[in-house]
Amino acid sequence: MMHIHLFRNARRWDSCLIPIDDTTFGMILQFKVHLVRVEPNTRFFMGETYATGNGILHDTYGRFNLDRWANTEWEDYKRDFVSVVQRHWSDKFILDPNKPWYPPRRDEARNAATIQCGLSIQLVDSAAQAHQTFRIIHPQETNFRSYVDEPGRTGLFTHLDLESHWNDRQTRIGSETHSVSFLQTTVNHEFGHTLGLEHVNGTGNSDSHYGVTLSERENQMGMGGLLTPRHARPWITRLRNHLVPQTHYDTTVSFRARVASPQLIEYWDNDWRPATTPAS
Question: Which SUPFAM superfamilies does the record cross-reference, listed alphabetically (predicted)?
Fold first, then answer.
């Protein structure tokens, strides 16, 4: 019988794999997150991004003027950060096994128990307690490019990143190129990087890395918000820490992801025209 570790700890996140009933498990990736309130007088250095306490943030893409956070605005941001990320990433995937693997009791036959993928975030008060530390700025400008340093378990976001925004991009649709507007919530895209996911077309920040075709552009790791089975890879990879094969049969068990529920279409083709009806 497969040996099951219920709880696992790690530097990037903790996880638990718990039976819900005889045919269903829940696997939750558990993040302890420290959100750092960056004020105009805050000093910090993150590679080429830094602030010296004079109200100016220096970055690869320019200089940005920092505003102060109102106390209520900061508390709202912390609360909304948790709800926005969990709502988008938690309970969105189901892992189906290729064969029966789990006997609920020792005297029973194996069944093909499925695994529901969850995600939880707990805010903590210090980087020492945290898996991930994110600095949050309040720039006057709206063109700051938020980012995650996944190996360093850090990131830099703005006060606007919890809201959905439209982005217009030239996008290939069939044999034509159209102007398409894509709706995306920046923090959900960046949290995908925290999970270890790359852009839809691989590592890099050129326009093509965010997709070329419509199906690529609308991807969560492109310009849009569409989740696909590929985005469940962090949960599938994590399973190796929870399920320890005991027999050769166990080593042949694998899991395949599917998206748990329908999703909204979050793009608009600005160049779409209704098909013309041939004259009779």
Answer: Metalloproteases ('zincins'), catalytic domain
Q: What is the pTM of this model?
A: 0.94
| CA 105, chain centre distance (Å) | 36
Q: Is residue 95 part of a domain?
A: yes
Is residue 50 domain-resident?
yes
DSSP-based three-state secondary structure for 52: strand
Q: Does residue 179 form part of some domain?
A: yes
Instruction: Using DSSP bridges, classify how beta strands 49-52 and 164-173 pair: parallel, antiparallel or unpaired.
Output: unpaired
Domain count, the chain: 1
**Largest Cα–Cα separation, the chain:** 74
Distance CA 158, CA 179 (A): 27
Region label for 166, one of left (φ > 0), alpha (ψ between -120 and 50) or beta (otherwise): beta
| Selection from 139, 154, 159, 136 nearest residue 63 by Cα | 139
Closest listed residue to residue 95, CA positions, set 234, 217, 225: 234
| 3-class DSSP assignment, residue 22 | coil
Domain holding 177, by residue range, is 3-268
Tens-digit pLDDT string for the chain (280 aa)? 789 999 999 999 999 999 999 999 999 999 999 999 999 999 999 999 999 999 999 999 999 999 999 999 999 999 999 999 999 999 999 999 999 999 998 888 999 999 999 999 999 999 999 999 999 999 999 999 999 999 999 999 999 999 999 999 999 999 999 999 999 999 999 999 999 999 999 999 999 999 999 999 999 999 999 999 999 999 999 999 999 999 999 999 999 999 999 999 999 999 988 877 666 6
